[in-house]
Design brief:
Helices cover about 30% and strands about 15% of the residues. It has 12 helices and 13 strands. The longest helix has 18 residues, at about 250-270. Its EC number is 2.5.1.97.
């Protein structure tokens, strides 16, 4: 398995661990194990420390006071300190994922994180929405020439274009963009997945979805619009708590996403307005005209003796007006499929 996405392949499902390990390496490995059992293609972690993301200050703009925020009442520093994945865990997580047959990669949040992940031979990189305006970081990641996935939450078209140009400026064409709404959780009506095909046409790259809505409906729907990658936060149990648990999928939901997104992809097929080959055997169960009351030779067919019913061995229902009012050429028992020789004598 590798980081190659295409509309000719089933959707590539990424389970985002984020801070749902709750500062337990044992739990982190269980999340990897569970994600693998769900059938995901990859699991993603995050590589930062509170000090690489912000400064230790707990007032003003460094304090989350929004009453609607999941993280209200805490400072950015304390939030990131609680959510970060210790760097000394990374090797164990990468190796365990490899053992389970699942790709593992990460979101680096500064240059030191990129260098560290390179030392682990990370197979790909993800740029988070909050970093999609950090062009030096994007160029640093793109320079590895490895696949790079960029979430586009909060970005203007111009900012997305700058990020795309930053990747391509170093000769990296292994770019995938993810439509993303950076609210936690996001609402379906603010997700706007109709943007996916427009983004593909505009930026000439694969496009997927980083989905923060509840459930799997939005993610499955995105497949019909051409999403080739779907990222969802993942936890063992929302009831266990954690910084992202509220909008994370549990194992049974992730399994359903893997199955239903593939079904949605398989259903796309091609533009085919005619009857399919697979339907040929079902034709006999369509409606057709049948004699539903014994008719004697010379008797006139009426709406009481001929009806449109199933199965489909008789002539099509559209000819009923021709049949009714005509005379039977021979005795016809109830349950006989109507054929033209009944009225014109041609057997």
């Amino acid at each position: 398995m590798n980081f190659e996405f295409s509309r000719n392949k089933k959707p590539f499902i990424i389970a985002e661990m984020s801070g749902n390990h709750n500062q337990s390496l044992e739990r982190a490995l269980k999340i990897v194990d569970s994600a693998a059992n769900c059938g995901v293609a990859a699991i993603k972690i995050q590589t930062y420390t509170a000090d690489t993301l912000t400064i230790d200050k707990s007032d003003g703009e460094f304090f989350i006071s929004d009453p609607k925020s999941l993280w209200k009442g805490t400072s950015l520093y304390e939030l990131y300190k609680k959510a970060y994945t210790p760097w000394e865990w990374h090797k164990a997580i990468f190796e365990y994922a490899n053992k389970k047959g699942v790709l593992c990669f990460s979101s680096p949040f500064d240059f030191s994180a990129v260098d560290f992940l390179e030392s682990l031979n990370a197979p790909a990189y993800k740029i988070a929405s909050f970093e999609n305006n950090d062009l030096p970081l994007i160029r640093k990641v793109a320079a590895t020439k490895k696949p790079i996935i960029i979430s586009t939450g909060m970005a203007t078209i111009a900012e997305v274009a700058e990020a795309v140009d930053a990747v391509r400026s170093v000769g990296n064409e292994k770019l995938t963009l993810l439509k993303c709404t950076s609210t936690y959780p996001a609402s379906p009506e603010n997700t706007n997945i109709l943007s996916i095909p427009a983004m593909r046409d505009m930026f000439r790259c694969e496009v997927g979805l980083s989905d923060h809505t509840m459930g799997i409906g939005v993610a499955v729907a995105s497949v019909a619009l051409g999403a080739t990658v779907i990222e969802k936060h993942f936890t063992l149990r929302r009831a266990d708590g954690g910084v992202d648990s509220t909008f994370s999928l549990e194992p049974e939901e992730m399994k359903a996403l893997v199955v239903e997104s593939e079904r949605a992809w398989l259903s796309l097929g091609s533009v085919k307005l005619e009857r399919s080959e697979a339907e040929e055997k079902s034709i006999i169960f369509k409606r057709s005209l049948y004699v539903v009351k014994d008719v004697k030779k010379g008797e006139t067919f009426t709406s009481e003796s001929v009806r449109s019913i199933r199965p489909g061995y008789g002539i099509p229902p559209k000819y009923i007006d021709i049949i009714i009012g005509s005379k039977a050429m021979f005795d016809i028992p109830r349950g006989t499929a109507v054929s033209w020789d009944m009225i014109n004598g041609k057997k």
